[in-house]
Write a structure and sequence with these properties.
Elements lengths: L11 H21 L4 H12 L11
Helix pairs in contact: 1-2
Length: about 60
C-alpha cells in the first residue's frame, strides 16, 4: 500500500516558524539524550522542498 502524499502551502514566515520550532524540539531532545532521527528527516525534507508560487483569490 502506498503512503499518501500531502501538500502543505506555507508563507515564508510560516515556513521559518516551522523550521525554528523543529530546531528547538531537536535541541530539547538532544539535551534529554533522546534520538532526533525523525526531526532530522523532517528538517531535510522542509529545506529541500520546492518553493511554488501560487495565486490566491480572495472571496
Amino acid at each position: 500500500m502506498k503512503n499518501p502524499k500531502y501538500h502543505l502551502y506555507l508563507t515564508s514566515d510560516e515556513r521559518r516558524t516551522v523550521i525554528n520550532s523543529l530546531i528547538d524540539l531537536r535541541n530539547d531532545l538532544i539535551s534529554q539524550g533522546r534520538y532526533t532521527d525523525i526531526i532530522d528527516e523532517l528538517l531535510i525534507k522542509l529545506t529541500k522542498a520546492k518553493v511554488k508560487k501560487i495565486k490566491i483569490k480572495e472571496v
